[in-house]
Write a structure and sequence with these properties.
alpha/beta; four-stranded mixed beta sheet; binds shikimate-3-phosphate
Length: 435
């Protein structure tokens, strides 16, 4: 067996061959938006291929607590209907679990609602920064407070009349941008946002599909407030960030050929694929098409010879969630890879600069941590050993991929957190390693 579970850890061993076809779960970012955007419109919406992870469960339970009807039809199909007379004040604290996207986007909606809400989450989410949304929402007229000088959950919001602002984001963040666009859609006047670098634009696409007056000019976005929005049916593409694990595994393993079907390929998400190609990867995109307003295609990856590269600047927001698995590709490549301008990684489900460096070094990588990135010395492959996910789903999956590629097995401590975005991960891993 390739992934041996001891209850506390899972041990992954390199198989002779990695091959097969995979359909990854529905995209987490788009699934959150498919739920939350339909809370600010009247009528029913149907969502297909909704992501199955715990984070999406958090958005669904918050939607229910705000009075929305959610009917789960099975196989990822869901009907969402906000109350006819508007969202209602929840009776209890909203629990966003591990989900930063639920918290930030939902707060953008709550800021305009005429009632009181409190939001909290698990220990990881309670250590992530929230002033980045509270500051600009206050400028729009919202009343919001949070623990630790407005930095940490729990957070309390009394929504009300908002007005548009002109705001330059200090860091590229799709979550902050989306929070302000959702608030701006319900504010008086126009809200203008300026990004320092382009981040994923799923919110802009969905708002446009809902009838919002939104315009995008390079890094400048503006939305007119109080334009009535309609519900939107969404067919969610396969999660680009989940596909990334199998693509890296196939590129590095000495005998591999993997096809990931129906993957979201929107430009704001495909930075890892661009970097792998620059590293020498044999990647092919076929069957490219538009589905539900998003670019979708099949990604084929196979055994490749990789060399190190420099990754920084505008590429970073386009691969922000893929750095743990990119570090594995880099550790197995020839030469050094330098990742810079990535200080935002310190504010993810774990401090992904510190955790990637510490945990991959435990299994034989040579990574030097830097304030805003890391240097990964390639050329030696991965010897193997025991490493800890720190409860971060993308770390757990990256370490499992390391086990598929390392000389000796990798034991992944705290492996259960993959359920945050990809509950079927261990089953898919066993399948492609068995062929
Ligand atoms: C997300 C945006 C990114 C990403 C997160 C999901 C989104 O966060 O890391 O996993 O769905 O908008 P930031 O926008 O804060 O960088």
């Amino acid at each position: 067996m390739t992934a041996l579970s001891t209850g506390l850890a899972r041990t992954v061993t390199r198989p002779k061959r990695l091959a097969g076809e995979i359909r990854v779960p529905g995209d987490k970012s788009i699934s959150h938006r498919a739920i939350l955007h339909n809370l600010i419109a009247r009528g029913s919406a149907r969502v297909e291929n909704l992501g199955p992870g715990d984070d999406i469960g958090s958005s669904l339970s918050c939607a229910r607590a705000l009075g929305a009807e959610v009917v789960e039809l099975g196989n990822g199909a869901v009907i969402i209907r906000a109350p006819e007379s508007g969202l209602i004040e929840p009776e209890d604290v909203l629990d966003a679990g591990n989900s930063g996207t639920t918290t930030r986007l939902l707060t953008g909606i709550l800021a305009s609602q005429p009632f009181f809400t409190t939001v909290t989450g698990d220990a990881s989410l309670r250590s992530r920064p929230m002033e980045r949304i509270i500051g600009p929402l206050r400028k729009m007229g919202a009343i919001a407070y949070a623990r630790g000088h407005d930095e940490y959950l729990p957070m309390a919001i009394r929504g009300g009349d908002l007005h548009g602002i002109d705001y330059a984001l200090p860091a590229a963040s799709a979550q902050v941008k989306s929070c302000l666009l959702l608030a701006g859609a319900m504010a008086d006047g126009t809200t203008q946002i300026h990004e320092p670098a382009a981040s994923r634009d799923h919110t802009e696409r969905l708002l446009r599909a809902q009838g919002a007056h939104i315009s995008v000019d390079g890094l400048d976005i503006s939305i007119e407030g109080r334009v009535p929005l309609h519900t939107v049916d969404v067919v969610v593409p396969g999660d680009t960030s989940s596909a990334a694990f199998w693509v890296v595994a196939a590129c590095v393993h000495p005998d591999a050929h993997i096809v990931v079907r129906g993957v979201g390929l929107t430009e704001g998400r495909t930075g890892l694929f661009d970097v792998l190609i620059a590293m020498g990867a044999d990647l092919k995109i076929t069957n490219g098409r538009i589905e539900g307003g998003e670019d979708v295609g099949d990604v084929t990856a196979q055994t490749s010879v990789l060399h190190g590269v420099h990754v920084g600047g505008e590429l970073i927001p386009r691969l922000i969630d893929e750095v743990p698995v990119l570090a594995i590709a880099a550790a197995c490549a020839q030469g050094d890879t330098v990742i810079s301008d990535a200080q935002e990684l310190r504010y993810k489900e774990s401090d992904r600069i510190a955790v990637v460096a510490t945990e991959l070094n435990k299994i034989g990588a040579r990574i030097e941590e830097q304030p805003a990135g890391m240097v990964i010395h390639g050329g030696r492959g991965l010897p193997g050993g025991t490493a800890n996910s720190h409860g971060d789903h993308r770390m757990a999956m990256a370490l499992a991929i390391a086990g598929l590629l390392s000389d000796e097995p990798v034991s992944v401590q705290r492996p259960e957190c993959v359920s945050v975005s990809y509950p079927g991960f261990w089953t898919d891993l066993a399948r492609i390693a068995a062929s």
